[in-house]
Structure formats: C-alpha cells, structure tokens
C-alpha cells in the first residue's frame, strides 16, 4: 500500500452535465463515481452515490461516515448543504485563512474527496455497529492513522494490532517456506507499524531484533497456541481505548517549558509544533515530533477562549506576522492551581467550533439521559464513570492505569503554562506602575484588565455558546 502522506489530486472530467469524480477511502484507494449536475450538487448526493458504490447499509453508514476535503495542509468535513465543486474552487482561500505554510507550499496544495469517519460519531455509538463492511472501513482508517503516527501508540499495543492484522489475513501470512511466510507477513503489518518503530537497533556485537521480527515471532506463537474469535473486533477495541481516537487533528504550536537545562541552551526555537486532537470526549495536545501526549482534558475539565491579537501601529512587534495569528487559550486545574495554556494556530477558530459543537452535543445527550421518563437507577448507571470503557472488555486491551510510561499519559511539565493568579498579579502591577494621565487611556487600561480577569466566557460545563450553529457549520 502506498504511503498516504500526500493525497492524490481529485480527478474530475466534465461530460455534458455529468461529472466523473474520484472519491478516496482512508487507505488511498479511489472509487470513481458519476454525479449529475456535479457543479451544483450538494454533499448529500455525493455521499449517497459513494454509499451505493460501496454497497453499505444506508442508515448506519450515514451515522458513521462523512465526506471530507483533505489535503496535506487542511482537513474539512463537508456538511450536507456544502457543494463540493465550489469548495474545491475556493480551496486556495481556505488554505490562506487556515494554514501557516509558506506560499510555495500553499500553491502546490490540492484537496481530495475522502470518505471517512464522521467526526461527531461517539465511541459508544461506533461500538454498536456490527456490519462487517462498515467496520472494515473504520479499521482501515484507524490502521492508517496509527501507521502515520497521527494516533500515538505504545509498542505493546502496536504489537497486538500487528498480530491481529495478521490473524485477519492469516491465509496471506502463511507460506510454503519460512522465507515466503516472512515476506508475506511484512507486507501485511507494514500498514500498522509506525515508521519510528521499524528502525533496526544495532549494538557493538550484533543487530538487535527489529520490532517487525518481534511481532512476527509473537504472531507465530499466538497463532499456534490460540484462536482469536473476532480479530476485527479485537483490533477495534484496542483503537477505541485510545483517548484521542476519532479526533479531528489541527496544527498549532505552544511555548516550550524553560527548564534551564543544558539541552535547553541549544534549542533553536522557543516553540514546539503540536497536533491538537479534538473529539466528542475532549481535547489532547500531542507533540508532533515525538508522538506523545502533552496534555489531555475531557469536557468539564477545562474552559476555553479564542483570541486574535491585532498589533498596534506603535507596537514594537507590529511587523511580526506571528503576533496577529489567532490563539486558543485553555484554562485547566493542575496541582491545585489554575493553569493557562496558549495554542498559537491559524486554525484556532476551527478548534473553537469543534469544541462548541461537541460540548453542545454532549450536554444534549446528558439531558436526554436524565429524562424524567427514566428511573434514577437507569440514570445512575448511564452516568457511571466506567460506562465509557465498558465495551472494551478484552484480554488484549491493557487498562490505562497499567501504562506507567505510556505515550497516552500527559506530560504537562513540558508545557509553558501561566497560572491565572500570576496573570492577575501581572495586570494589577501594570496598573499600579503605569502613569496614566489621559482619561480615555485610563478607561481603555481598566477595560483591558477587566477583560483579562473575565477572559473565559465559555465553559465546557455549560451550554453557553458564542458562535451560531450556521457559523460553526462553515468552519467544520
């Protein structure tokens, strides 16, 4: 399978009123579909045509999947009312607005239509799906995200996933001789093992076994000793335990923690590139280079706000474009203190829309669960903290609390955060020390202080939103 780091160009050819469109699956395989009046047809028709081409059951497919415009620089889930042809024509404007790449890279960026998981499908809803064709596509996407390092994974989990993948393709991983079998095995597992785990480690005396070799011997042992009843389901259970599974990924950067070590003296940049993963459960900040979680928060554990700094003409940093890039601010509690994290990203408004939409959906679901038609025992059972992971019961899924050095564990100590108290003290000191003579300047100064103290108007604990549903649709 070709490495899915650059998606192929969407291919369209107009024959009268019919447009031939290539729609891709998560593994980069394409399906050509014919769309009548494609220039004005909405996403709904494109989606229904693809569902029919894949021979999927209509109702669960509509819940599980969506059409996306996807490129190396930007992912956008299309809404039913969007017109894909127009969205492609406007792609350059979207890239300029939401990507921090340089102009040369932007000019080469082209989107593809991709049929993939609906960002607003919860894990609990997905666990109720039993159709094999639908699960095959979900598995295909999860496998691709793990292989490309989008979903950070522990070596033990990747080993289990590799074994299960070979069990699912057992007829391909068995050969007439060991050499043929090993070749078939490697071709099978290359779609799930991340590149940084494939590297061979060498010692002075001999080369150590590669990760692939280790998985191969484990597969031989497992397949000879036991039978896996449903390898496809077991594979998905391991993926479902990843807290950021099903997230929309956004690009951003945060400030490095100044730990005053010798290594920090040689850092070329004070910022760290991160992926911001947002799903129906919460938000996770992931180190793009090292592929591990820096911070993970579920809804109800943080407040947030979006801000755009507009540099003044007299500001010494007025010429710095980075100063005008929007930021997503996350306020959370840690070690009995309130911390403030700034994520600098041109996609901050998209993150905000995703959080608002997921929060509103979660609160609506909570309201339905607490309906007066249900007994108190039913409500208590549904609100149980163990409910979310109850469908993961499997001997192959390692409990999260067993992960001592897991990549899924947060590392907030590596982030440069400001405590809210420090922020308030800073503004108070500025007010005391400043010599303000003009009354209008004094009012502006007091307004800025008041804004800083009441900065977080939005909380994931309430349904108060500041963006209309129509505006959120345009950003998602």
Description of the structure:
- This protein has 3 domains: 120 residues, Phosphatidylinositol 3-kinase Catalytic Subunit, Chain A, domain 1 (Ubiquitin-like (UB roll)), CATH 3.10.20; 88 residues; 228 residues, PH-domain like.
- The N terminus is likely disordered.
- The protein is globular, with a radius of gyration of 25 Å.
- By secondary structure, the protein is of the alpha+beta class.
- Helix 8 crosses helix 11, helix 13 packs across helix 17 and helix 15 packs antiparallel against helix 16.
- The longest helix is centred in the last third of the chain and has 22 residues.
- The strands form 3 sheets. Strands 1, 2, 3, 4, 5 and 6 form a 6-stranded mixed sheet that branches.
- The protein contains 17 helices and 15 strands.
- The protein is 38% helix and 18% strand.
Beta-strand segment tally: 15
What does the overall shape look like?
Answer: globular
CATH architecture of the largest domain: Roll
Count of discrete structural domains:
3
Low-confidence stretches: 1-11, 383-388, 426-437, 448-454
Q: What does the average pLDDT come to?
A: 77
Helix content: 25-40%
The rounded distance between the terminal residues' Cα atoms is: 29 Å
Strand percentage: 15-25%
Q: What is the tally of helical segments? A: 17
Largest beta sheet, briefly? 6 strands, mixed
Coarse structural class? alpha+beta
CATH level 1 class label of the largest domain: Mainly Beta
> The CATH topology of the largest domain, please?
PH-domain like
CATH-level-4 superfamily name of the largest domain: Pleckstrin-homology domain (PH domain)/Phosphotyrosine-binding domain (PTB)
């Amino acid at each position: 399978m070709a490495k899915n780091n650059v998606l192929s160009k969407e291919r369209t050819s107009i024959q009268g009123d019919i447009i031939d469109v290539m729609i891709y699956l998560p593994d980069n395989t394409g399906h050509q579909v014919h769309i009548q009046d494609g220039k004005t047809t909405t996403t709904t028709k494109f989606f229904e045509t693809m569902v029919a081409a894949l021979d999927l059951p209509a109702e669960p497919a509509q819940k599980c999947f969506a059409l996306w415009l996807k490129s190396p620089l930007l992912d956008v889930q299309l809404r039913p009312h969007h017109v894909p042809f127009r969205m492609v024509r406007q792609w350059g404007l979207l890239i300029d607005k939401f990507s921090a790449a340089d102009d040369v890279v932007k000019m080469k960026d082209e989107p593809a239509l991709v049929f993939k998981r609906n960002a607003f499908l919860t894990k609990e809803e997905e666990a109720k799906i039993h159709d094999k064709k639908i699960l095959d596509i979900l598995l295909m996407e999860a496998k691709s995200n793990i292989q490309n390092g989008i979903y950070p994974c522990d070596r033990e989990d990747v080993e289990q996933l590799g074994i299960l993948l070979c069990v699912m393709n057992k007829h391909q991983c068995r050969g007439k001789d060991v050499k043929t079998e090993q070749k078939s095995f490697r071709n099978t597992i290359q779609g799930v093992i991340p590149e940084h785990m494939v590297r061979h480690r060498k010692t002075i005396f001999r080369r150590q076994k590669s990760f692939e070799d280790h998985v191969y011997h484990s597969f031989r042992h497992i397949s000879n000793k036991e039978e896996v009843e449903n390898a496809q389901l077991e594979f998905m259970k391991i993926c479902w335990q990843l807290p950021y599974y099903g997230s929309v990924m956004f690009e951003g950067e945060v400030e490095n923690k100044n730990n005053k070590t010798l290594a920090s003296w040689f850092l070329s940049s004070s910022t760290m590139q991160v992926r911001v993963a947002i799903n129906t459960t919460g938000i996770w900040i992931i180190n793009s280079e090292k592929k591990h979680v820096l911070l993970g928060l579920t809804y109800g554990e943080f407040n947030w706000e979006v801000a755009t700094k507009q540099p003044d003409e007299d500001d010494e940093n007025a010429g710095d474009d980075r100063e005008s890039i929007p930021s997503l601010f996350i306020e959370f509690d840690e070690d009995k203190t309130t911390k403030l994290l700034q994520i600098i990203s041109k996609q901050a408004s998209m993150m905000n829309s995703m959080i608002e939409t997921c929060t509103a959906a979660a609160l609506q679901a909570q309201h339905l669960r607490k309906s007066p038609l249900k007994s108190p025992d039913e409500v208590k059972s549904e609100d149980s903290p163990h409910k979310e992971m109850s469908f993961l019961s499997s001997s192959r899924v390692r409990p999260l609390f067993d992960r001592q050095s897991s990549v899924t564990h947060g590392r907030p100590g590596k982030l440069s955060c400001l405590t809210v108290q420090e922020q308030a003290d800073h503004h108070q000191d500025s007010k005391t020390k400043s010599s303000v003579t003009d009354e209008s300047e004094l009012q502006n100064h007091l307004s800025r202080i008041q804004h800083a103290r009441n900065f977080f108007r939005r909380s994931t604990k309430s349904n108060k939103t500041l963006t209309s549903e129509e505006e959120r649709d345009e950003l998602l």
